[in-house]
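Table S5 (text form). Sequence records supplied for joint modeling of the six-component complex.
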Amino acid sequence: MRPESSPSGRKRNPIIEEARRRQIVDAAIETVAEVGYAQASLARIAQRAQTSKSVVSYHFAGKDELLEQVVTQIYADSWAFIEPRLAAQSSAAGKLAAYIESNIAYMHARRAHLLAVVAVVGNHRSADGRLRFEPSADESVLTLLGEILRTGQRDGEFRDFDPRLVAVTVSQAIIGVLGAWVADPTVDPTSYAAELVTLFDRATRSQGD
Amino acid sequence: MRPESSPSGRKRNPIIEEARRRQIVDAAIETVAEVGYAQASLARIAQRAQTSKSVVSYHFAGKDELLEQVVTQIYADSWAFIEPRLAAQSSAAGKLAAYIESNIAYMHARRAHLLAVVAVVGNHRSADGRLRFEPSADESVLTLLGEILRTGQRDGEFRDFDPRLVAVTVSQAIIGVLGAWVADPTVDPTSYAAELVTLFDRATRSQGD
Amino acid sequence: MRPESSPSGRKRNPIIEEARRRQIVDAAIETVAEVGYAQASLARIAQRAQTSKSVVSYHFAGKDELLEQVVTQIYADSWAFIEPRLAAQSSAAGKLAAYIESNIAYMHARRAHLLAVVAVVGNHRSADGRLRFEPSADESVLTLLGEILRTGQRDGEFRDFDPRLVAVTVSQAIIGVLGAWVADPTVDPTSYAAELVTLFDRATRSQGD
Amino acid sequence: MRPESSPSGRKRNPIIEEARRRQIVDAAIETVAEVGYAQASLARIAQRAQTSKSVVSYHFAGKDELLEQVVTQIYADSWAFIEPRLAAQSSAAGKLAAYIESNIAYMHARRAHLLAVVAVVGNHRSADGRLRFEPSADESVLTLLGEILRTGQRDGEFRDFDPRLVAVTVSQAIIGVLGAWVADPTVDPTSYAAELVTLFDRATRSQGD
DNA sequence: AATGAATGAGAATTCATTCAT
DNA sequence: GATGAATGAATTCTCATTCAT
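The corresponding structure-token record, covering 836 residues in total, follows.
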């Protein structure tokens, strides 16, 4: 439950404290990316962070909190990258394209982040045995995509389809492209992203366009 | 999801031996589906198979071989279901639709198989730390889809696109639909499958059609 | 949870199994007696039993079950010693004296048992933080003593007093004598037991006697 | 429960220093009372004292010194309560009754103190593994009781018995009454104390009385 | 063919203590 | 005088595997 239980507020020395936490979270990301979820022990994470298990335990309530931070941090980072690129587009089709391309671009530059989120989100469970995070694509992402798609339909940009299905499909397609690149580094995610944009453009735009 | 034969595995008393192995593999599938890859210990699997750990160890060289059998068996089963449905179609578009629909239909009827393959394929690693199976969509599936798509392009059914990208996207879309259903059982995979067929039809067919 | 989870009944090889469990319980008794409850780790117990921690974990579901066995076994052993001595007496006063003397005699011959029960009963707690056993003197003992005392009152052997208070006092007096002996080995529990019998005889017998 | 003065403990800034120490000792008492000796960690004690572990470590040489203070302080407090009540009695029988009643009255009003002393005295050990305090009833108490009893015997108030045995028995009886109350709060320690006085009166007074 | 017993490695976590500031 | 950060030892427990029978 966080270092000590100081009577007053939350953090005590935000400067050092937060730096250390970040360093450990980064080590956790790299470790999970490299050896996978099941093999990512606190010992290994600590080793990569160049500390001992107890330091990790000091800064995080437990493995659970650490792994949650991994996901939370990656979600926040990626959203900070994607959001302005979305905002720069006015049409629904433009936003959809920006979403696909910025997502792929972000992860293309951060291979470990990609592997870590996928691994943690797909495996991390609470004590009751249920997955702690939404499987594969998180709910808020689907909501966001759903809104873009629905807006496009209302404005006549897109044809009639089930927005949730297409949202799921877009999400998975992005992961697919990234997965193909991870499995075979000669794959170019950028050009695949462009192909994906074309593909979904055809799949979604209304007849007349 | 994978065209290949099931065999391998040296036998001792083919008759009883194989029954026992099957029973244990089934228990492994259910266990992984229920508690996830990381929590699926031999003890838990043995418990569900109503035996003891040593029996499991006796019939399989180790946990590795057992989990490989899990994937191998599910690939074989699903291929036995899908293959005839593919063969019944003559056009590339028909084959593509049959692929999508039969894949989803198979897993729709076998939730545990779906969860188990995804979990094992995404997590199981050899001693050197590399994934034992191709991540998310295995190579032979992509090869098969790729051939269908290329044939369709050659025959003018499909427009010009990167067959590998579309193969990856189709594969992932199927997983996406199934994932949506697992997360929310009110989702109807059959109608989603139909939507997916439409979506990819639009995305792939050549201009004039 | 016991070794494995064989499909059939409880124990598998009662002969070896039970011997090993007994050996470990004995080691636990000696360890707790020697180093106290808080310092009695599974490692230390295993060491004294000339095995490894994992053997202990194999035969007992956990430290909890082991320590419960410690208490259960000592209660059973001591009762087997005391019961016939109680039965040999017909009067309530005789039974009371026999109870005091046989209790002290039993523990006098088994110093480690005495120290272990006291330590475990006074310290062992369940996850919710409550003591697992009745504190200091267990309920069934008080019930038994209470019945003897009440019988004596009904038959006119004993004066009028609160049977529960006297039961508690007798119980504690026995522990006191044994504690005095443990702290100072020159104390003779046998003669103290005799003194105690006299003391409670005077304290309980009805006026006229 | 123990005639002795509280002092010791080197001071730095007597005024604030001593207040802080007292506060921490109180927190230790409550913690031990609530969770037991083995679970009373410095972290938990600090938490209840609304500070951090390092503050505790700063004010006390270590956990050992803190727990010793717990016992010392309770002994001093209880003696301050009991002593005047003893002094008010002139006869040995009166002093014995006053001892029993004031002891029970003190602890009746301070449940946490009772639980804490019993727990610490029965468990706390020095590095060599020996109990730091005399087990269950400490020596000075027995000496005091012994003197009362011997005086009573010399003056003809009490019959002939081993004063040490009776001292031990009285001590344990008091703990027994308090233990019964702790286990079952409906028990009334005051009336049990009165019963105890009667019981020991009968058990100790000389024949003719 | 089958299995109960054993085992050592490694898991997460808690602990009392120290130290630089 | 006070404390946040760090740390290494030790805790219980689970694991996959091996072996004698």
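Note: Chains A and C do not touch (no CB pair under 8 Å).
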